[in-house]
């Protein structure tokens, strides 16, 4: 299945709720973006630093807009664990949501968090001056952000990926099954139209009063009517001929055409010729 997107499999509103619940339980901010870095969800648990304090500086707005790794259209560099630091040294981690390794559908940005310990206030003095921020307000906003260890963050990433990927793969399997059902229905519809045209030609050439096309179910070893004309609906629905038995079953098994009239001497099918409406008939195997 090509060109599948995250929103084709999971409703964004439903994922937003799941993301918000994870954020509330872990007290870690989270947001989900598509493979191009475009937002799929709102920022759950966005810290005061990101949601209010930094939005007062046009320069910081531009900087924070690029708070994504390079492969998602930002300016940050990721390490081998798909984590990266923002302008203020805060750490973000990335959970990849995918159906298979070659087909990432979304990324959950988990963070920012502070790893291990808060830095001294004076370490932020230069940044505060550069971006025209009050140092005390900046430091208070940073110390409001959750402290976490590297290993615990990797556990959160693993949990998000397990839940997200399970939902995606389950939805993908359901969608694939539905598409297969629709494809089968479309195939049967095309086959039905083809066989009806085939019957039109056969009736035009022979001047027949009735006729049908039967299909062989190999698993049940029986034939049933797929397309017909001039045959009662009850017969069409209920007719089942065992493979190798009766007129049609014999023709299907031997794969040879049969012309039936009152002079036929084949003992295998003479017992089927007592029907008063059967004066003459042609039975032909359609070979694929």
Q: Can you give me a brief rundown of this structure?
A:
With 288 residues, this protein is α+β, with helices and mostly antiparallel strands.
- SSE run: HHEHHEEEHHEHEEHEHEHE
Report the C-alpha radius of gyration, rounded. Answer: 35 Å
How would you classify the helix and strand content by structural class?
Answer: alpha+beta
Helix content: 40-55%
By DSSP, the count of extended strands is 10
Mean pLDDT rating: 83
Q: Biggest sheet, open or closed, and with what strands and sense?
A: 5 strands, mixed
List keywords for this structure.
288 residues, 10 helices, single chain, five-stranded mixed beta sheet
Lay out the secondary structure.
Layout: H1 6-9, H2 12-26, E1 30-33, H3 48-53, H4 58-65, E2 83-85, E3 91-98, E4 104-115, H5 125-130, H6 135-143, E5 147-148, H7 150-206, E6 211-217, E7 222-229, H8 233-238, E8 240-242, H9 246-254, E9 258-260, H10 267-270, E10 281-283
